[in-house]
Write a structure and sequence with these properties.
single chain, three-stranded antiparallel beta sheet, globular
Length: about 90
């Protein structure tokens, strides 16, 4: 899976979504990483009723809910790697 130390050539894929504590959500990735973020950083997710938050599904490399007007993409969760990439793309 790894050709260099770290996650250089790993395409992140969402495995599961959790809401571990009030005001936070956690995205677990297939490669073993987990990211915990404030729900307040995602206004469209804030609009999803708490009772429906466990009913998420994957769509096009992101995650959404029936009552969510948007898809939250993996780049929104991890950040746009091109903005902090310190090596030239090959």
């Amino acid at each position: 899976m790894f050709t260099k130390e770290g996650y250089w050539n790993v395409t992140p894929q969402i495995k599961s979504i959790l809401f571990p504590v009030r005001g936070k959500w956690q995205v677990d990735l297939v490669d073993g990483r987990s990211v915990v973020m404030p729900i307040s950083a995602f206004p469209s997710l804030k609009k999803v009723p708490v009772s429906q938050r466990s009913q998420w599904y994957l769509m096009g490399g992101g995650v959404t809910w029936d009552s969510c007007p948007e898809v939250i993409h993996i780049e929104q969760i991890l950040g746009d790697y091109r903005k902090y990439n310190h090596e030239e793309d090959v």
